[in-house]
Amino acid sequence: MKYIEVDEELYRLIASKTERIGESASEILRRLLGLEVEASATQEKDEPEVISQPGLEETADVEDKPRFIDLHSSINKEELAAAKGAVGRFLFILEAVYLASPEQFAQVLKIKGRDRLYFATSKQSLLKASKSANPKEIGQSGYWVTTNNNTAKKRTILTEVLHQYGTVEAQIESITRNI
Question: Matching HAMAP family, A to Z?
Answer without folding.
Answer: SeqA
